From TrEMBL:
One annotated GO molecular function: ribosomal small subunit binding
Family: Belongs to the RbfA family.
GO cellular component: cytosol
Protein known as: Ribosome-binding factor A
Matches recorded under SUPFAM superfamilies: Ribosome-binding factor A, RbfA
BP GO annotations: maturation of SSU-rRNA
Species of provenance: Rhodobaculum claviforme
Gene responsible for this protein: rbfA
Domain of life per record: Bacteria
Keywords recorded for this protein, A-Z: Cytoplasm, Ribosome biogenesis
Keyword Cytoplasm: yes
Chain positions covered by the region annotation Disordered: 121-144
Composition bias type Acidic residues, residue spans: 134-144
Summary of subunit composition and partner proteins: Monomer. Binds 30S ribosomal subunits, but not 50S ribosomal subunits or 70S ribosomes.
Subcellular location: Cytoplasm
Length: 144
């Protein structure tokens, strides 16, 4: 029976993960060195958090965030404007038939981390974490 890699609900393949990480590293390197000929892009310090690949490896979605989170719209516009040049830079490190099309999206990981921290610092949640549940009797079932 053949493995169905493209069915929804399954995670990315090892190849998708490997290619995505190669692209993430190369994008981060190019942006850090200022190798793109765009003054708007070179004045920003942009973090590339993750790159997700489509199943056919023809589209790479990069999740980016400027340092401090300020200037996100400017950064996304500059990255989209320079997609061709960035594609050329990543094409050299890939051993694939096609260099994927690049898409840029805001990286919301930090917002999710902050929301989780706020949730865990809530007094009600702290109380629930500290209180033992019914099945967690510290003295064991013999004490009942």
């Amino acid at each position: 029976m053949a493995r169905d890699r493209f069915s929804p609900g399954k995670g990315p393949t090892q190849r998708q993960l490997r290619i995505g990480e190669l692209i993430r590293r190369r994008l981060a390197e190019v942006l850090a060195r200022g190798e793109v000929h765009d003054s708007d892009l070179n004045t920003l310090s942009i973090t590339v958090g993750e790159v997700r690949m489509s199943p056919d490896l023809k589209v790479a979605t990069a999740f980016v965030m400027p340092l401090g989170g300020k200037g996100l719209d400017v950064a996304l516009a500059a990255l989209a404007r320079n997609q061709g040049e960035l594609r050329h830079h990543i094409g050299g490190v890939l051993s694939t038939k096609y260099t994927p099309q690049l898409r840029f999206r805001p990286d919301e990981t930090f917002d999710q981390i902050d929301a989780t921290r706020r949730m865990f610092s809530d007094p009600t949640v702290q109380r629930d974490i500290a209180a033992p549940s019914d099945g967690d009797d510290p003295e064991g079932p013999e004490s009942r």
